[in-house]
Amino acid sequence: MMGSAAPAVWRPVARSAAASSARRGISQALQDEKRAKLEALFKNKAAAAGRAAPAASPWRPTTSSEASQQRPPSVRERHLAAQCAMEAPPVEAPPAPGYLARQIKGSLLLEKHATLILFNELKKAMEILAKSSTGQFKKNRDAFDIMTRFKSDLLRMPFSTLYVLMPFSMYTLQSLFYRVPNALASGYLDEYVFGQRDIAVSRMRADVSAAWLARLDARMAGVLASPPTPPSPSAADRVRRQAAVKWRALRAKAPEHATAADFADLLPWVRLEYSLLTAPAADIRAAGRLAGHAFSWILPRTRLLIAGDWSAKDTLRIREEGGAVRLNTWCVRETLDRRGVSHLDAMPNAEQYARLDQLVGAEMAWRQAILAMDSAAHVSEVDAANAALTVDQMASLIMLQSLYTAYQHGARVEPSAAG
User: Which parts of this chain are annotated as the region Disordered (predicted)?
Assistant: First the structure.
């Protein structure tokens, strides 16, 4: 009886151990299968993305039916997924070969392009000089622009060559142009370089204009705050007060709504104490920076007089030849840049031509107003074009141009802020 009872006692225990072993084997097989699937899933994702797979959950269903059937992952499954993600080897995109070689090649190509342009300008300049000496060629505005560009490019070529050949010089273009807007010769101003220059010069002109207009606001506010001279103000005091009132009204306008006539109203005050010869040194240096002068503290008034004389003659040439429509696109862009117009890279060509005609008309209106003030009579546009300006008249014209440029780059200020 004892021998027959032993199998009855141990048989269920043996079945329980076998079942437990079978369950452990099935669980281990399922875990191995899940691990293999997860590893394959992460490797496929990493290979498709070209980089290491992110640590996002791999349990996201792809269809609505799968979403309804799939259960949330357990803690062990999430740990297993995270462990597979950590063990997946990172797949990084290989670096582009020859980066430094491409930089050197690009610099050399830019140098070659600029040198060819300089030789082309030299050839055209020699042809113009040869024909002019024999009387076979009449020097027009395009010829004058070619000669001016060639002389300036010839002076800037040595520095331009050294700068472009320096390693990583393309990354410092904005810093260079912010301080020295005309550092590089025109042959180096391809599409990318000109875009970098336009960004830097626009930012520089905005900073300089904001500081200049703030000084003028404080000056005009002081004039309005001071009591009039008893018993009757002098002529100079009346001019100052009238200018302060007109300046406050002008500052209430947006820059795009300011006209040449608004600045012509300030002409008596400019002739009295704010021309290029009598304005404060800080404002003269600001006008020089707006004109694109590097190291504007070196002979600022002389350099501005030379630039103003060139601008006045250029205005007469453009007017005589029928307006900006007679110029090519590059000449229009250069002329606008010399006159302090920014954001040329994003300005359409038609708008550039219209802007140049507007500036030419404004300068002719100021020229007429200056001559009419001194002659105490009306001066026609033809008479203004034929009349020669004195140094004092030229100094007033340059200051009006500079104030107009600063106002176009300055932000709008309400009358209360202006005093």
Answer: 1-29, 52-78
